[in-house]
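Ticket opened by: R.M.
Priority: normal
Category: complex prediction / small molecule

The reporter submitted a protein together with S-adenosylmethionine and asked that the result be attached to this ticket for the collaborator who will pick it up next week. Submitted input follows.
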Amino acid sequence: MEYKFKQENYDFWLERFKKNSPNKVCSNDIGLDAFESQQILSKISDYKSVLEIGCGNGLLYEELRKSYKLSKFVGTDFVDELVKECASKKIDNNDIFIQLDMTEVAQNTFNSKFDFVISKRAIQNVLDHSLQMEAIDNFGYFLNDDGLMILVESSNDALQKINLEREKYGLQRIYAPFHNLFFDDELILNYDFKNVKLKSIDPFASDFYFITRIIYARYAREYLKEDPYYDHPMQKIALTMMGKQITTFFSQIKCYIFEKI
Ligand SMILES: C[S@@+](CC[C@H](N)C(=O)[O-])C[C@H]1O[C@@H](n2cnc3c(N)ncnc32)[C@H](O)[C@@H]1O
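Result attached by the on-call engineer:
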């Protein structure tokens, strides 16, 4: 399907692949990225099959294969070069890597069903909320009856709450990058999916975002007189607070879990 900035999005990921070290293709914030992966990894188990939406250069694939004896892994991504890179890391003969635009998934795309369908910030690259919901539903068709879809994606609702708080302290608004459309939580809660049902939305990163985007942002601006950066000790402290959920509103990244209907 066509959607806004599709080609630009493709070029953006290709450029990141060419310019960055392998652990920074997916994100510049490698600390947060590891926690996002952990959210997914903690819900998988041995001898299960996994279908990944947006496998990129295979960081999560490698972690999955290191952690579990999977029966099968299928990685999909629309950037040909990334799929090839992921395929070059193939660890098990049962694993398959396919160039696939997630908005083109149909009932004949895969010839088997899966225990887990996963995505780490892939669906938010589709700049159309209806196409995002359709992609979730269409991938949901390929879930086994007791399967789970685990999506770690950004929430626009949480970003707005972060910005409301930042405004109180004269901090600039944060905008989603041009190649992302963050999830609309109200839409997800009320959408009439045919193949899946929303089980939970986990704001696992709320304390991390509260500390980095509000407390550390204030500290950097008001006292340090510098821009925040990912290696600062406050970022590291914030990472250790991940998952405690002392706050819940500010989880710009959330774990959306769906089960088969
Ligand atoms: C944040 S990266 C995730 C990479 C990988 N999961 C990892 O952990 O390293 C998002 C991925 O989504 C892919 N993507 C963006 N739009 C897509 C689309 N329409 N169909 C399939 N993949 C897409 C990008 O190419 C990129 O590799």
